[in-house]
Structure formats: C-alpha cells, structure tokens
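Q: Given only this backbone (124 positions), what sequence would you predict?
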C-alpha cells in the first residue's frame, strides 16, 4: 500500500525558506505523478506543483513560480518542495499526493494517495 509522509513544515518569517520532504513507500512510482497541494483555513485545496517521477517534468502554480521548486530523488523515493521568499499568504497545510501520470496534474481528483500534511506558517 502506498504511503506518503511529509515533513519539513514550521513557523518562519516572511522572506525565509523551507524545504518540504515527502517520503514515498509501498509502491513502484515510475509511472506516477507526484504533487504538492496546500489548503489554508476556510479555503479549498490548491495545486502548488507536480513532477512526473519518470523524466522529472514539472509544473508549478503561477502563484509560486520563481519561488518554489519541486524535485525528486529517485534513489530515496522522496519528493521535495523547496520554498523560497515565503509570504504570509503561503501559510497553509501542505499535502503530498501521488497518482498515475495524468494530464490533469493540477486537480486533486487526479491523485489517488495523500499524505497527512505538514503545516507551514509564515509570519509578517
């Protein structure tokens, strides 16, 4: 059974950086797409970034382009989200997700497996 475990969240000041990690286990991920989503209180879950496990093709939401970067380490079965120049509006719970590679990379419905989430709080 596929399991995803996020780590790396925390409380930081605006302008700081954080790196989130998502350790994946229980499956063969070569045909998967991995995604990061976030959800702020009272808001819907929002796409942040995705990466195809095979080939490493990435997509980033416009709101994070130039500040966030998704990557993966095949040997460690881990996906990362490097977040730089953090803003208060980036405050949210961040979730890692995995699903069969799909054109609908920005839709939560395209992902079959989810982690428990890690909280990121950015103070002004």
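A: Predicted residues:
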């Amino acid at each position: 059974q596929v399991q995803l475990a996020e780590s790396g969240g925390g409380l930081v000041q605006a302008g700081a950086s954080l790196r989130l990690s998502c350790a994946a286990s229980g499956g063969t991920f070569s045909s998967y797409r991995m995604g990061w989503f976030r959800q702020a209180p009272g808001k819907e879950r929002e796409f942040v970034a995705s990466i195809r496990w095979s080939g490493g093709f990435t997509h980033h939401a416009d709101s994070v382009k130039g500040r966030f970067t998704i990557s993966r380490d095949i040997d460690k079965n881990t996906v990362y989200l490097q977040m730089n120049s953090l803003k208060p509006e980036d405050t949210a719970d961040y979730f890692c997700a995995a699903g069969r590679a799909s054109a609908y990379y920005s839709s939560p419905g395209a992902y079959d497996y989810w982690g428990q989430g890690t909280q990121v709080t950015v103070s002004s």
